[in-house]
Design brief:
The complex is a heterodimer of chains A (272) and B (87).
Chain A: E1 14-19, H1 20-27, H2 42-50, E2 55-64, H3 69-81, E3 84-89, E4 91-94, H4 99-115, H5 122-136, H6 155-174, H7 180-187, E5 191-194, H8 198-207, E6 214-218, H9 225-233, E7 237-242, E8 258-262, H10 267-270
Parallel strand pairs in A: 1-2, 1-6, 2-3, 6-7, 7-8
Antiparallel strand pairs in A: 4-5
Chain B: H1 3-15, E1 17-24, E2 30-43, E3 48-54, E4 59-64, E5 68-77
Antiparallel strand pairs in B: 1-2, 1-5, 2-3, 3-4
Classes of the chains: A alpha/beta (272), B mainly beta (87).
């Protein structure tokens, strides 16, 4: 039997918004548990979306790093495909220390070190386990400002963690197991790429409100759920394209007016 | 992944019962049956595992689920040393 070819049922004029940072996150890290398994080809994506006669505009939002040739070239590439690109410069915010993600790889690597020691010393592994639990319990870290690298909501807890890692490091060195590299990693400043388009996207959607009946948004970011909710109240239809593992839980409570579509349904049309 | 193994670990943790496992080390060796108290999952992106107290060794160990070949829930209960986080 011939497989049915997926096709959107669009209701009237359709505005399409692509939050490329979110889409890129679906496939940028093959080691991630939520890796999509294939890459989205922006050129094929444009051709596929253009095949729908009701589409009035395809807006492509992404951050540019103008000092990087690759980034600038991508900007030109996107234009050449026919997109309406909306860009701004990427900001690198200094050291918003997301402690859990910062420490967890270090602790995992410590456990890996211990796994390779045949008769793992119980004292090490017990301390390491307690350390990993302390990291999990750390409170959220607040945003930094221009003058200080970061603000820590609970310096005492953080100090305990650094001390515990240092203690383990020293004891492991006594066994000729060198984890100095991990210590160095702790000293590296943490930087975060910041180029959110949620405000710009919301603004543009509202400025276009009289011009479309359906909004299709390529992003599973749950921050857009409030926007979708309001558009549905205003009588619009909203289609959210997401990758498995990249859909905000905010969408779970929606009942009518929202169509959630896994990117996998489009794979045959838009995969690189 | 062997979901039967995973399920047995969860059941034992919920009932606070000691598990016995056959575990293959990275070098391919095995120490035979090991009696362990399960406490929590190991949240490593590449390898799913769990943390458990090895009774004979007197300490926490991390076990990769992929390297457990046999698992059984024993009749023996344990008093948790850490919060049990399998719920």
């Amino acid at each position: 039997m011939k497989a049915e070819i997926f096709k959107f049922r669009l209701t009237g004029k359709t505005l399409i918004v692509i939050d490329w940072a979110n889409v890129y996150g679906w496939f940028s890290d093959p080691n991630s548990r939520t890796y999509l398994g294939w890459e989205v080809d922006p050129q094929k994506l444009f051709s596929y979306l253009k095949s729908y006669s009701d589409v009035i505009d395809i807006r492509f939002y992404y951050g540019v790093e103008s000092y990087k040739l690759k980034s600038v070239a991508f900007q030109e590439e996107v234009k050449s495909y026919g997109y309406n690109p909306i860009t701004k410069e990427v900001k690198w915010v200094p050291a918003v220390l997301e402690t859990t993600t910062h420490f967890k790889p270090i602790i995992q690597r410590l456990f890996n070190v211990l796994d390779n020691v045949k008769n793992t010393n119980s004292d090490f592994s017990n301390r390491l386990y307690q350390l990993s639990k302390k990291v999990e319990q750390l409170p959220k870290i607040s945003m930094g400002n221009d003058k200080t690298n970061f603000q820590i909501t609970n310096e005492g807890q953080l100090k305990e963690i650094y001390d515990a890692i240092e203690g383990l490091d020293n004891d492991l060195k006594k066994l000729n197991i060198d984890i100095g590299e991990l210590q160095e990693k702790l000293k590296e400043p943490v930087w975060r790429r910041k180029c959110d388009f949620d405000v710009e996207i919301s603004r543009d959607i509202y400025n276009n409100l009289p011009n479309f009946e359906t909004l299709m948004i390529f992003s599973g970011d749950g921050d857009y759920a409030a926007l979708a909710e309001d558009l549905i109240l205003k009588g619009k239809k909203v289609i959210v394209i997401f990758a498995p593992g990249h859909k905000g839980k905010e969408y779970e409570d929606f009942k009518a007016g929202l169509f959630l579509c896994s990117a996998n349904k489009l794979k045959q049309f838009i995969a690189k | 992944m062997n979901y039967q193994i995973l399920e047995t670990i969860k059941q034992a943790a919920r009932a606070k019962r000691v598990l016995r496992i056959i575990y293959i080390e990275k070098d391919g060796t095995s120490e035979g049956w090991r009696y362990v108290e399960p406490y929590s999952f190991s949240k490593d992106e590449r390898e799913q595992g769990f943390f458990a107290w090895d009774i004979l060794k007197g300490g926490i160990r991390r076990f990769s689920l992929e390297r457990i070949t046999q698992v059984e829930m024993t009749e023996q209960n344990y008093t948790p040393r850490y919060p049990v986080e399998f719920f």
